[in-house]
Write a structure and sequence with these properties.
The protein is α+β, with helices and mostly antiparallel strands. Helix content is 30%, strand content 22%. It is built from 6 helices and 11 strands.
């Protein structure tokens, strides 16, 4: 079965650079981002891990926990972390899951169930599909799934933007339009009738079309 938005994020136990965790317990009542890597000491991933460390305070402000995964053992992650700090100027400040048995990668359908082999002998190309970003809500459901090729660095500013939208629309009956950013106008959700909308937005709304009802972003 293919994982999709709205599914419960599969739970697991795993060793990380900050000790052993059970994933759902680690998330707790927070939001979470799980982002994966095909191999330690790979160039694009090195830049990504450093940038995530740099902007971690932005995730913290939003109540979002960050956790990485790479298809190598935890002791290898610790050595890689030195290179990341040296080249990117920011030390990894979040846990990194070791997945040498490929268990989590298979559980999250990033690798086929038939995948196997000594992780030290598997190349980045063997694991090239382990390039996902999962955003998970406090309800443990998948809210966003992104998949990137190995040669394209991920845009984590976009992940922050999506989290802003997800958190806003989880609290208010609105949707966010194309390229929306925090503080910009939003759209009244289609599930809200005009009568309901009039109670929620007594000042009214702009409606270039009946189905496109635009209001300022709710602040409360």
């Amino acid at each position: 079965m293919t994982l999709k938005i709205g599914d419960i994020a599969p739970d697991f136990q795993a060793d990380t650079t900050e000790g052993r965790i059970r994933f759902h317990d680690w998330i707790g009542d927070s939001w979470a981002v799980l982002f994966s890597h095909p191999k330690d000491f790979t160039p694009v991933c090195t830049t990504e891990l450093g940038y995530m460390a740099k902007i971690k305070p932005e995730f913290d402000k939003r109540g979002v926990k960050i956790i990485g995964l790479s298809v190598d053992p935890v002791d290898s992650h610790a050595k890689w972390a030195n290179d990341i700090k040296e080249t990117q100027g920011h030390a990894v400040n979040y846990p990194m899951i070791g997945d040498p048995e490929l268990a989590v990668s298979k559980l999250y359908e990033m690798l086929p169930a038939s995948a196997s082999g000594d992780p030290s002998k598997r190349t980045p190309a063997d694991n090239q599909t382990v390039r996902n970003v999962f955003v998970i809500g406090p309800d443990k459901k998948l809210k966003l799934i992104l998949v990137y090729p190995m040669t394209t660095g991920r845009n984590f500013d976009e992940v922050l933007r999506v989290i802003d939208s997800l958190q806003l629309t989880a609290k208010h009956r609105v949707a966010t339009p194309v390229n929306w950013k925090q503080g910009e106008d939003v759209i009244i959700a289609g599930s809200v009738s005009n009568d309901e909308a009039a109670k929620i937005y007594p000042k009214g709304w702009k409606a270039p079309k009946p189905y496109l009802r635009i209001v300022p972003q709710p602040r409360s």
